[in-house]
Fold each of these.
Amino acid sequence: MLTTAHQLQHCPECGAALPAATEMAQRCAECGFSYAADSVVFRPARPWRIYLLFAAALAILPGLLSFLETTLARLERPTPLQTLFAAAAIILLVWCGRRLRVLLEPNRYVAITPSGVAARTPRITARLGWHEMREITLRGSIPLIYRHANEPPVLLEWVFDPGEVDLFRAELQNVSRRWAQQVIPWRDAQFRSDLD
């Protein structure tokens, strides 16, 4: 979900109230988050379909586990199919728990600011200056920022809604032209072998 600087009332990093954006670069008084009138912030929309899918999976899971428990209690030795079914139920439970934790993570965002790109995902919190970014490519449909000097790339996952990556690319090019007098190269390769 795209938020323009004119709609930005609170800092995406710390939640403090922000003065209205102007053409000049400004900073959050609490954490130093940089923003201006052309800044944009991407946040994930609340995917209610995914929440409903997880709720359905979690509602079915106790019944599956109960069925497995009664079935296994009647047998001295479970069949390979029953063992496989039990393992699948456990894997489903773990997968649902991890994905739900990610979806409920507050304050996930990617911001294009006068000083570069700021991001908070479930795995990273990063502020990348314009001079630090070498190029951007895609890993599947997720932007991946490569840095200069052998530092690990930054994967911007679990933030963009479908169709927003192209908008992120266009906004990144526009803002980087103004503030860094350069355009960060964007490679259309879908996968690179030097990923971590």
Amino acid sequence: MAPTSILLVFAAAAGAASPGQVRAAPPDPAVLSFENAHIGMSLQAWRKAPFPGQPNSHVTAACAGGARVQPGLTRAGATSGASTMVCDYVSRYGAIALTEDVPWTQGLLVKSPRYVFTDGRLSRIDLHIGIDALDSLMVWLKARYGAPSRLVHDNMKTRVGPLPRLTARWNTEGGAVELVDPSPDLANMTLSFIAAPAGGRAAIAG
């Protein structure tokens, strides 16, 4: 499985282009989506949707139980006692399984997008993007969601000592968007689009 990196959570855009084609951002920023997937869709509907990357007959959807959700990254929707399923796309060549990347807007490459389902509904989409794309990604996020609702600069602990970290958050009617740069693997950012809990906006555990 690809290392944790930029996380991004979105809900479905109206209309989907053919697989492999980079699609424009959906017109309504309140809708959280990434390509063919949108927050709130069912696991069954997601499995039926085409793979958003380059056409590949070896690609298949793979899901596993909540043990694959990295500690500290569980967000609103994946509540205590809820049934959690984590899915991604892999290419299978015999006994070998390789995670798949997806070309996206602004020329960005999303590394092995990850989809979290809570009680059968998509509650989060995690996108992993190289740290060298921070400027392009921030331009897209600010154009779509405006100035961040919260911007935090702190340090993260690593094996080589503390390193600067940026966390930007946008609150929306449909939930929240959060960007963490860098992610724990240090080579990527994590962009997360997160479903709002019932009765309110998304809240991220510290």
Amino acid sequence: MKNVKGLRETKAAFKQIRAGLDVPMRASLRYAARPMWREAEKTAPFLEGVLKRSIKLVRIPKLPAGLVGYAIGITGKARFYGHLAEWGVPGKYDGSRFMTRAFLSQRDEVVQRFRQHLPGQIEKRLQYLAKKAGGR
């Protein structure tokens, strides 16, 4: 590996590409996850208003560089009730697994939407970066 020419420049170029993909990846992930999010809201079993309003699509913080992630989860005070609704109480109430069912029923659509949306977002980002670089 000592005699590889251009390795340093190639590594630098890949870092720039990876950094430039964060914006289109985030946009595509948000777009793709929407059906799963809506399904979870629609099938929340009880405390309908509180629980349904608490189901959010949130960005996962503190991921390693170059990784982007989102999660669909229950936020705020309803997190406790969401846990009970999903998993139940042993011996008293079987959980409805509404979040699990939302995932299982929508996962193929989410993958398809992501696959369709990402190329357009990358192109949009490239045009933006080209315009930004040309405008200086």
